[in-house]
Structure formats: structure tokens, C-alpha cells
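[Meeting: bench + compute handoff]

Bench side (C.D.) handed over the final construct sequence. Compute side (W.E.) agreed to return the predicted structure before the next meeting so the bench team could plan truncations. Sequence as handed over:
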Amino acid sequence: MKIEVVKKHFQKWAKKYDSSNRERMIPCFHDFYGTVVNMISEKRNIAINILELGTGTGMLTELILSSYPKAKITGIDLTDEMLSQAEKKLKKLKNRLTLKRGDFSSTSFGNNFDAVISSLSIHHLTPDGKKKLYKKIYISLKKGGIFINADLVKSESVYIQKLYMKKWEGFMRSGRVDENNIKRRLQGVKKVDIYDTFEDQLDWLKGAGFEDVDVFWKYWNFAVFGGLKKITV
């Protein structure tokens, strides 16, 4: 996927992104994002350093900073327009937040994070792009660190994948989502989304160095998956 195509797509929709009411656009919304929050750590009152890839308007960022009062997040996003929306939303939490504009597929991360998270962003990369990113993520984590990706995946079955997409579209319409927002999301599927199976992605995570990988949650084509960097490595 050409990065400029993705960039223009989100520059165009940044101001309207949150108006789409994502609870009515994402099935099991609270489970989807809540799984990311809950998998970061069993302990909430600890100082942890988190990297977020594809911060967008800061919705997941806000959930995590509110759930982990001593956490700090470094968020990377492709456009100034999205980051501007995030800054407004997270104004009261800015002392625990660092926002950077950049292409996370080519940006250096360092190696000092307790967790790396992402939501609905990595699916813009090609399979090779995902493989390279997973290797960078592995290097960026401390021993014992975790990578958690809440994203769209595709079924190994062409028939089931089409069924998932129909169910998703039906879910949005049943929630009376504005037709323009439905159209925008389905256009995004065709223009800027590249879906891979979670089976392939778990294999790629293993290839990057993660030994303990799994799907933490899944519903239709929405999944939360990732891996742990063992302390003994």
C-alpha cells in the first residue's frame, strides 16, 4: 500500500472520524478495545512505558491512560490532522503523553517499552510490511514486554470472509449509522485496507522472535492478537 494513499484518506476524514460513533460501527466495541487495555498488565497502578502505533484521534490512548494512572504513552500517527484531534481530546492527560507524526513502518522505536499497542492501523501494511514491523516491535520491547494488536483480519475461507463483511455492514445499518459513514468505511476497505489471516500473522510474530503468541479475542473479522517477549530470552 502506498503510504500517500493512506495519508490522504485520513487527512480527509480526521475531523469527522469521531463523529461516526464507533460503538455502532465496531461489533462488541467494549470487548474489542477492553481486551487491549486488560492485556497490558494485571497491575493497574504501575509505571509502564507504552508505544502506540497509529494513535489516530486518541480513543484507545485515553482508555489506557485512564486505566493505568502511572502509564506514559508515546503515540505515532501518520497525519497532523489526526494528531490535532488527539491533542484536543487528551489535553488533560498531556503530561503523560508524547505525540509524534511519522510513518511507523519506517520510524525507529528504540528498545525501552513495556508494551506496544495498535488498533485498526497495521492492516494498512502489506504482508512484507507487517513482517518487518513485527521485527521492529520485538526489538523495541523490554524482556517480559507485550505486543497487542486490535485489528481487522480476514478468514482463510473466501466464502466466510464475504459473510463477515455482510454481517459487518448489516451491523452498522442496524445501529442506524449514517450512510455516509458506512460508505466511507467500506471505501476504506477497498482503498487503504490490506487484510491477512490471524494464522499468518501469528506465524510472522514467531518469525520476529515472539515465542508466546495467541489470539486474545475474536468476533467475525475483528481480532485482538499479539505476543510476549520472554524474560528468559
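W.E. noted at the follow-up: The chain has a mean pLDDT of 90. C.D. will use this when planning the next construct.
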